[in-house]
Amino acid sequence: KQLYLRSVREAVVSTQSTGHQALESTISPIVIFATNRGHCTIKGSDDIVSPHGMPRDLLDRIMIIRTSPYAQEEMIQILRIRAQTEGIAIDDASLQELGKIGVRSTLRFAVQLLTPSYLLAKKNGRDNITKEDVEEIADLFYDSKTSAKVLTEKKDKYLY
User: Fold this and answer.
1) By percentage, how much of the chain surpasses pLDDT 90?
2) According to the model, what pLDDT value does residue 49 have?
3) Could you read off the pLDDT of 33-58 as tens digits, one per residue?
4) Any residues with CB less than 8 A from the CB of 96 and at least 6 apart, and which?
5) What does the alpha-carbon distance between residue 41 and residue 53 come to, in Å, rounded to a whole number?
6) Residue 19 near residue 31, CB atoms below 8 Å
7) Res. 12: pLDDT tops 90
8) Contact, 16 vs 60, CB < 8 A?
9) b/e string for 91-122 if b means 16 or more Cβ within 10 A?
């Protein structure tokens, strides 16, 4: 049996306690936690800060697999597969540009730019995405890091 928890940080303390008990069972499943959090407050607690937002006693019982960010070429390969899956024609220069955006921002953001870039190409009478389409669309949208930076820099212009 396997149990996969994608966003372990979102699990509240009581849920993590139940999971902890399951891990102690003789018929315990293989449990896979996924998180991209550093030190943060454990959800459901008021002020308990822990690595990955997980209780320390649970952290003591798990193996942490080291991961590393995708290289630009890996991102381009993933983007190419995604475009093929969605039936989007895209040239190499466009994939290179999306790969650069992915390295600068995130792979998720680069993937999210595929559809609006394709819609822009269609609007301009083409069936394939060009580098110019990607650049124009990338100028229209913020990734989460840029958005947070803009909000911080211009906080006096927004309601809180």
Assistant:
1) 48
2) 87
3) 777 777 888 777 778 888 877 777 77
4) 76, 131
5) 5
6) yes
7) no
8) no
9) eeebbbbbbbbbbebbbebbbebbebbbebbe
Contact 29, 3 (CB under 8 A): yes
Tokens of 62: 């798990």
Nearest to 113 by CA among 125, 90, 123, 48: 90
H helix and E strand count, the chain: 8, 6
Secondary structure element (H or E) that encloses residue 14, with its range: helix 13-24
Q: Which amino acid is at 98?
A: L
* Tens-place pLDDT, residues 72-104: 999 999 999 999 999 999 999 999 999 999 999
- Residue 47: how many CA atoms within 13 Å on its side-chain side? 0
Angle, helix 72-85 to helix 92-104, in steps of 10 degrees: 120
> What SS3 class is residue 139?
helix
Helix (H) or strand (E) holding 144: helix 144-153
Other beta carbons within 10 Å of 129 = 29
Here the tokens at position 26 are 């003789």
**What confidence score (pLDDT) does residue 17 get?**
58
Neighbours of 54 (CB within 10 A): 23
